[in-house]
């Protein structure tokens, strides 16, 4: 830490860094105009930046310049078990690589505190109407993931600065919000703002507390773990002024889905948003967390709220120590991070959002930013009298109806962090039970809160039995359906869905509904608030106009509609106030974080299990990945349209027996019932690379039917033969030929999750370059971390401009520097050559350095050995 501007924080034994003084010394009066984000970034520069670079770095913030890279030093790294495990597999492999070259592997450790929470590996095999669902699902999780959990336990004892919260305890973001984040750090006698990066795109969940928390890929997280700064330029900081008051009956989910559509339309991709205004002040931390959680869905990097009385009330409610709560308030007021002190903050762009315009909303199908007002179900062609009549006729014949809701899941930290949403669902269930309504028998219902505290306050409120009666018993404390881990359907139901090619759907209180993500047999999925999920389990089909159609009849034969079971705001608020208590949080979290004494591992090197399909020594320092990237003669692996998600690139849901990964798992001796999900196998590159473009909803424009229409499926065309094949067979063929590859795509390439395997998979396949109209932030960073060059068409140019059909080969020429101009050379099959100007999307000098080394792991190994 630096010494300049270090002072004692009044009334404490702690020091702090007077960032206001440092900024004002450069430009008097400037600090009052800085946004919240800039103030936090400035503090860590004053505290840790090289003094010789400090003034120039601070001027970037003061003058809103973006001409200089400056370092960001996050205070923590938080990981879930999928990307966190793969990051630690990479570090274990790095230890092996360094040992092979004569270095000391024991010196490779995270130097930044790293918290790993096991929350992504549980599948809902036993549904919420099974009274033993929780125990059954946990037993299956332990059996399937024994290899993974063995490795994670070894990491806890082999690496310094790694804490592990084992399976069955909750979702990383909810635990981060309710316990892990102190909001203000107290380390080595110094108080400073908590900041973190997390290996999940929804890490901004804790932005609701005023904590800059950014979702990154596993590769960028590894960089931070190893103590290297994350180099950045001043991001676009956009103010979002929230005004108005919400209408009665409107949930935080409704607001979040409306905000997601609004912000997507306003094009805030990669921006840091700061929510403020009279409307923001009325939102509880639970409401704010629902909004902040959806940050990746509206394309931003952060969704910040200021520290205010709501923050303090929440810290007290969740059982934080009184001394810590006092520190947060005092520090925020002393350093200008308190909401009242940001009245003069200036933004280059301010948007206004009116809470009073929000109606009851869903989202879908296919995209979380496709807002679907429940009042518009008919006009959007989702519901309608004729469709409902046909569906009910099928039901009368003993068949499942068109639009059948085969999955109804109250899931995800997005909504279960908010007691108001959960209590509202419980009250809907209570009223439905009182009126004699029941769940349709084909609906696989489940309730998976992100924290064990939810069970305690629902029991206190008397609502857990009501949810259980309707089939929403607690199946897990994990991500489950939101992460595509919805588990198998009842075989009878699955057979009917497949045999009839039924339009089956899922309704969930999650944050993503991309096609193919939630369940292979759910053709489309819709996002909804927890109480609406309960209502759809009763309705049983999305052909139902949920606002007006009759859900059933009460004991007297009277028709019951949604308004009859929807609780008032007063009912919800009174029950939340009565039932949610600080002692519940202490009861759960004090023993959870008592990690006890840990014995050091016997060896700093992991004993890899040869037959494991879950954990394998990574290959990033050997073979083709250690060779030169020529960027010449590249053949297209795929030509793709807009909005390609990381679910297209490397799906996370259940492995099907007929897939390339399924065939490999069977060959390795795994029984089909234990194939598990793609996500859980990402510690083994031999399994994980078979997930590359394995999404059955993929549309590769190189594969067309006799009418010229693009075929759907995990398909490719091997060139120059022109032979169509499954994607994996094409990848194998090109790997055998050592053929360099390119991917050509449209806008917003790499939307969605932060999974690094979306970049690792294509790199292992031999992809050297991706040219697209635009990239989502996290995926672009992951590509750089794997040594894949992202280049961008100039505005107005697309793959269609140049008639790219996949028969071409491509070269990229030019000297690489940050955001330089390069030339993409298209070599057509007829001998014609076209030169296309493109932009290099290595955005900083640090990224060029990583790319030139072959990737972040190769860069670290070289630097480590050079300094040894």
TrEMBL record:
List, in alphabetical order, the GO biological process terms annotated in this UniProt record: propionate metabolic process, methylcitrate cycle
Task: Please state the pathway this protein functions in, per its UniProt record.
Answer: Organic acid metabolism; propanoate degradation
Q: Which residues form the Aconitase A/isopropylmalate dehydratase small subunit swivel domain?
A: 664-795
What cofactor does this chain's UniProt record say it requires?
A: [4Fe-4S] cluster
Q: Which Gene3D superfamilies match?
A: 6.10.190.10, Aconitase, domain 3, Aconitase, domain 4
Could you tell me which InterPro entries the record lists for this protein? 2Me_IsoCit_deHydtase_FeS-dep (IPR012708), Acnase/IPM_dHydase_lsu_aba_1/3 (IPR015931), Acoase/IPM_deHydtase_lsu_aba (IPR001030), Aconitase/3IPM_dehydase_swvl (IPR015928), Aconitase/IRP2 (IPR006249), Aconitase_4Fe-4S_dom (IPR036008), AconitaseA/IPMdHydase_ssu_swvl (IPR000573)
The cross-references to NCBIfam families, in alphabetical order and at most eight, read: 2met_isocit_dHY, PRK09277.1, PRK12881.1
Query: PANTHER family from the xrefs?
Result: ACONITASE/IRON-RESPONSIVE ELEMENT FAMILY MEMBER
Tell me what this protein is called. Answer: aconitate hydratase
């Amino acid at each position: 830490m630096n010494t300049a501007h270090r002072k004692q924080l009044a009334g404490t034994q702690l020091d702090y860094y007077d960032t206001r003084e440092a900024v004002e010394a450069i430009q008097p009066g400037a600090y009052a105009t800085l946004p919240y984000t800039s103030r936090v970034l400035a503090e860590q520069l004053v505290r840790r930046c090289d003094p010789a670079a400090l003034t120039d770095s601070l001027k970037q913030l003061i003058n809103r310049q973006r001409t200089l890279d400056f370092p960001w030093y996050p205070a923590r790294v938080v990981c879930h078990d999928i990307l966190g495990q793969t990051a630690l597999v990479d570090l274990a492999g790095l230890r092996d690589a360094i040992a092979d070259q004569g270095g000391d592997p024991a010196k490779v450790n995270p130097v930044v505190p790293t918290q790993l929470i096991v929350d992504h590996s549980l599948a809902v095999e036993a549904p919420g109407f099974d009274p033993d669902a929780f125990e059954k699902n946990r037993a299956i999780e332990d059996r399937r993931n024994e290899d993974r959990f063995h490795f994670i336990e070894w990491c806890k004892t082999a690496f310094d600065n790694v804490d592990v919260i084992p399976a069955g305890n909750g979702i990383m973001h909810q635990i981060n919000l309710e316990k892990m984040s102190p909001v203000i750090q107290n380390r080595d006698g110094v108080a400073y703002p908590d900041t973190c990066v997390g290996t999940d795109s929804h890490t901004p969940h804790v932005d609701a507390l005023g904590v800059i928390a950014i979702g990154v890929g596993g590769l960028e997280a590894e960089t931070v773990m190893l103590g290297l700064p994350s180099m950045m330029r001043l991001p676009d900081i956009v103010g979002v002024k929230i005004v108005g008051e919400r209408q009665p009956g409107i949930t935080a989910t409704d607001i979040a889905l409306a905000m997601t559509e609004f912000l997507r339309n306003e094009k805030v991709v990669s921006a840091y948003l700061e929510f403020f205004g009279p409307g923001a002040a009325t939102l509880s931390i639970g409401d704010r967390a629902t909004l902040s959680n959806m940050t990746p869905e509206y394309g931003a990097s952060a969704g910040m709220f200021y520290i205010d009385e709501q923050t303090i009330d929440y810290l007290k409610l969740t059982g934080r120590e009184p001394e810590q709560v006092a520190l947060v308030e005092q520090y925020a007021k002393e350093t200008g991070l308190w909401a009242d002190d940001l009245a003069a903050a200036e933004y280059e762009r301010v948007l206004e959002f009116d809470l009073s315009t929000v109606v009851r909303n869903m989202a879908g199908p296919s995209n979380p930013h496709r807002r679907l007002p429940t009042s518009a179900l008919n006009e959007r062609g989702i519901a309608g009298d004729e469709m409902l009549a046909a569906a009910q006729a099928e039901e009368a014949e003993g068949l499942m109806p068109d639009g059948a809701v085969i999955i109804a899941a109250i899931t995800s930290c997005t909504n279960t962090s908010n007691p108001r949403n959960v209590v509202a669902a419980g009250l809907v269930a209570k009223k439905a039970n009182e009126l004699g309504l029941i769940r349709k028998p084909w609906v696989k219902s489940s309730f998976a809160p992100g924290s064990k505290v939810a069970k305690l306050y629902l029991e206190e409120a008397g609502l857990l039995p009501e949810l259980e009666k309707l089939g929403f018993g607690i199946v897990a404390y994990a991500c489950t359906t939101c992460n595509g881990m919805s588990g198998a359907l009842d075989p009878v139901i699955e057979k009917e869905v497949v045999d009839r090619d039924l339009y089956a759907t899922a309704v969930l209180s999650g944050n993503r509904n991309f096609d193919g993500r939630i369940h292979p047999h759910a053709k489309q999925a819709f996002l909804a608030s927890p109480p609406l999920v309960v209502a759809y389990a009763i309705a049983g089909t999305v052909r139902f106009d949920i606002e007006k159609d009759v859900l059933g009849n009460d004991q007297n034969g009277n028709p019951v509609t949604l308004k009859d079971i929807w609780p008032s705001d007063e009912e919800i608020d009174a029950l939340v106030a009565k039932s949610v208590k600080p002692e519940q949080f202490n009861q759960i979290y004090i023993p959870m974080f008592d990690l006890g004494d840990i014995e050091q591992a016997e060896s700093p090197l992991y004993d890899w299990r040869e037959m494991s399909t879950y954990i394998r020594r990574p290959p990033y320092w050997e073979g083709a990945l250690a060779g030169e990237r020529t960027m010449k003669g590249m053949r297209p692996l795929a030509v793709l349209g807009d909005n390609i998600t990381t679910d297209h690139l490397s799906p996370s849901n259940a492995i099907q027996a007929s897939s390339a990964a399924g065939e490999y798992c069977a060959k390795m001796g795994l029984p089909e019932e234990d194939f598990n999900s793609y996500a859980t196998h990402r510690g083994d590159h031999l399994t994980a690379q078979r997930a590359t473009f394995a999404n059955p909803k993929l549309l590769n424009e190189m594969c067309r039917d006799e009418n010229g229409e693009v075929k759907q499926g995990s398909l490719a065309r091997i060139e120059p033969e022109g032979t169509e094949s499954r994607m994996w067979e094409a990848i194998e063929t090109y790997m055998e030929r050592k053929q360099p590859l390119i991917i050509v795509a449209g806008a917003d390439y790499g939307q969605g999750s932060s999974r690094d395997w979306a970049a690792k998979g294509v790199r292992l396949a031999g992809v050297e370059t991706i040219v697209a109209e635009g990239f989502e932030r996290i995926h672009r960073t992951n590509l750089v971390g794997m040594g894949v060059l992202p280049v961008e068409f100039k505005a107005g140019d697309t793959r269609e401009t140049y008639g790219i059909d996949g028969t071409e080969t491509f070269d990229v020429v030019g000297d690489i520097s940050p955001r330089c101009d390069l030339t993409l050379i298209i070599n057509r099959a007829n001998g014609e050559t076209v030169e296309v100007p493109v932009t290099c999307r290595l955005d900083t000098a640090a990224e060029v350095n990583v790319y030139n080394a072959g990737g972040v792991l190769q860069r670290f190994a070289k630097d480590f050995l050079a300094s040894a």
